[in-house]
């Protein structure tokens, strides 16, 4: 299975089975090798995980705020979020979501993900896009739900992103 | 009742584990957000059990397991991990961890994992299938 297919499949399963979302549809995919795409446009909130070892890449998930707020609600399971903790909780849910999806998708990556390591997730605030550098490749999909959209993307060298 | 130390850099996972541990009738002694904090807390709190994340900034879970085992060779540490981290789980077990839980964490998985380490909290055989089905 290709990297983006594996990520899309696991996002769909995660949103439907764990996050109580029923209306999930891939509405758009992009590949920088087929388009004059030189940057990855980001949504309201973004987390990313770097992979190393046999795959040097960056996996980026970017959410509409309404969708991320829904994920926070489900993660918190009815518990109130205090103002002091709110930002850390949002960061934590965003990071934990990509961490879980990566963990589930990795065994379906080319080579079954063997020898691939992942870093702890990082969250990016106030960024609108990530620019492609020379021979790098970006593949990306936008997934729509009843709570808004998220995009999932893989960035890396042309020979590593399959 | 077991006194448990939670180690995870994710606040949401620490909250979830706290809720589930208390629901199972145990107590959370402390929650640490990185490996070094976990080692310090283990030394001062002497918990019955540790739940340990693997991928954390500053000091990862495997290194923290090794350091805790140096402090107490009988320490009971369960790794909390995602699919796709099988190599890390094996390294953790080699370092001295006694079990693992695969995310997403549920009450059943946590109860089964605790029951495998502490026989007095063992769940019945039907429930144990929940863990085995995951790998």
Quote the average pLDDT of chain A.
88
Order of helices and strands of chain B: EHEHEHEHEHH
CATH topology of chain A: Chemotaxis protein chec
Low-confidence stretches of chain B: 130-135
Query: For this structure, what is the CATH class of chain A?
Result: Alpha Beta
Strand content of chain B: 15-25%
Radius of gyration of chain B: 13 Å
Q: How many domain modules of chain B?
A: 1
Q: Report the sheet with the most strands of chain B, covering strand number, pairing sense and barrel closure.
A: 5 strands, parallel
Could you list some keywords that capture this structure?
heterodimer; A: 162 residues; alpha+beta; Chemotaxis protein chec; B: 135 residues; alpha/beta; five-stranded parallel β-sheet; 6 helices; globular; disordered C terminus
Topology:
The complex is a heterodimer of chains A (162) and B (135).
Chain A: H1 3-18, E1 25-31, E2 39-41, E3 45-53, E4 57-63, H2 65-76, H3 83-105, E5 116-118, E6 122-124, E7 129-131, E8 136-145, E9 148-157
Antiparallel strand pairs in A: 1-8, 2-7, 3-4, 3-5, 3-6, 4-9, 8-9
Helix pairs in contact in A: 1-3, 2-3
Chain B: E1 3-7, H1 11-23, E2 27-32, H2 35-45, E3 49-53, H3 61-71, E4 77-81, H4 86-95, E5 99-102, H5 107-117, H6 125-132
Parallel strand pairs in B: 1-2, 1-3, 3-4, 4-5
Give the structure's gist in a few sentences.
The complex is a heterodimer of chains A (162) and B (135). Chain A is an alpha+beta fold and 162 residues long. Chain A has three helices and nine strands; from the N terminus they run αββββααβββββ.
């Amino acid at each position: 299975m290709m990297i983006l297919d594996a990520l899309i499949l696991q996002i769909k399963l995660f949103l439907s089975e764990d996050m109580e979302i029923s209306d999930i549809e891939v509405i758009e995919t992009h590949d920088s090798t087929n388009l004059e795409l030189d940057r990855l446009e980001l949504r309201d909130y973004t987390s990313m995980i770097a992979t190393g070892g046999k795959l040097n890449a960056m996996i980026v998930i970017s959410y509409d705020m309404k969708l991320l707020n829904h994920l926070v609600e489900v993660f918190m399971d009815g518990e109130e979020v205090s103002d002091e903790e709110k930002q850390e909780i949002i960061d934590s849910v965003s990071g934990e979501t990509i961490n879980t999806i990566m963990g589930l998708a990795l065994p379906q990556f080319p080579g079954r993900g063997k020898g691939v390591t992942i870093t702890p997730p990082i969250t990016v605030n106030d960024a609108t896009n990530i620019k492609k550098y020379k021979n790098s490749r970006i593949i990306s999909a936008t997934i729509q739900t009843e709570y808004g959209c998220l995009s999932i993307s893989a960035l890396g060298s042309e020979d590593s992103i399959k | 009742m077991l006194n448990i130390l939670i180690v995870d850099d994710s606040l949401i996972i620490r909250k979830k584990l706290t809720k589930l541990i208390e629901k199972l009738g145990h107590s959370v002694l402390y929650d640490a957000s990185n490996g070094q904090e976990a080692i310090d807390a283990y030394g001062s709190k002497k918990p019955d059990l540790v739940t340990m994340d693997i991928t954390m900034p500053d000091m990862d879970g495997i290194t923290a397991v090794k350091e805790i085992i140096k402090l107490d060779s009988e320490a009971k540490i369960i790794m909390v991990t995602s699919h796709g981290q099988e190599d890390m789980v094996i390294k953790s077990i080699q370092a001295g961890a006694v079990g693992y839980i695969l995310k997403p964490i549920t009450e059943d998985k946590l109860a089964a994992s605790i029951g495998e380490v502490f026989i007095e909290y063992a769940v019945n055989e039907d429930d144990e299938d929940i863990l085995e089905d995951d790998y």
